[in-house]
Amino acid sequence: MLRRSIFLTPLLLLPVRAETRPLRIVASFSVLADMVRNLVGDTASVDSIVALGGDVHEYEPRPSDLEKLARADAVVLNGLGLDRWMNRLVEASGSKARVIVAGAAVVPRQLPGGITDPHAWQNPLNGILYVQAIAAGLSQVPGITARASAYIARIRALDQWCLSQFAGVPVAQRHIVTSHDAFGYYAARYGLQILPVRGIEDAEPSAEEFAALATRLRAARGEVVFLENLTNPALLQSLANETGARIGGTLYADSLSRPDGPAGSYLAMVRYNTQTIVSALHGQ
Ligand SMILES: [Zn+2]
User: 145 CA to middle of ligand 1, Å?
Assistant: First the structure.
């Protein structure tokens, strides 16, 4: 409360300044925050609720989140069931922010049991839809149309580059195993067959499920197993040991890396994942 009153006082004294302050935009997780930063440049401050390396599927809100959201001018969500907790948080904060759902125009990937796959950003073509939705929601930001066009051109070029990378891998070899079901949209775009060890946000498999998975992996010789930046690698490592499958590297699914890491931005993440998968599949 103390911090709040200190913060509010100068605004009350300087109403003109308050009106001209930079916009405050809050995104639910790091991928969206990076997209927003590319669109607003230095005209707005951009924050992410889930910190780098945090789990956006299941997030435990902190009191400071409410404060951030209460002060936000715009809030950017993924939608598709990923960050439902954000809606409750925005409401609880009493925020008057405009809410932008980045994934609103995506054709959802439906899974058995009526579950929607929320990981749409992993397909760069969906990334473009995200950018268009965010830019439309923030249309009052100076220069956003030009920044959006330039950014979309970079995403499009990245998609073409990914296609060219996979063109060198025979379709029959494009089988991979991942920690959780985060690469369905990516796989559909680049013709991959993916066997996720866990579902979207399921618990770890039981002993029976693990045995069944090992049997499937042994039957499919030459499978490559990928770890993920947010998931405990022990399960996949033991699966690889048991079946003789190779560990192909670590993929970035639901969080960017630190800025100096291999996946410090959305573009870098897709590029790094593609390099990791393609070079592992070439090594078969
Ligand atoms: Zn996920």
Answer: 30
Q: What is the pLDDT of residues 62-106, one digit of tens each?
A: 999 999 999 999 999 999 999 999 999 999 999 999 999 999 999
In terms of average pLDDT, the best of 5-14, 134-143, 192-201, 230-239 is 134-143
- CA 182 – ligand 1 centroid, Å: 5
pTM beyond 0.85: the answer is yes
The CB-side HSE value for 41 (13 A sphere, CA atoms) comes to: 11
Question: Ligand 1 centre from 102 Cα, in Å?
Answer: 16
| Residue entry with tokens 């920044």 | 147
Cα angle, residue 202 at apex, residues 250 and 28 outer, rounded to 5°: 70
User: Ligand 1 centroid to 230 CA: how many Å?
Assistant: 9
Distance 55 CA to ligand 1 centre (A): 8
Domains of the chain: 2-160 (3.40.50.1980), 167-282 (3.40.50.1980)
What is the distance of C-alpha 113 from the center of its chain? 23
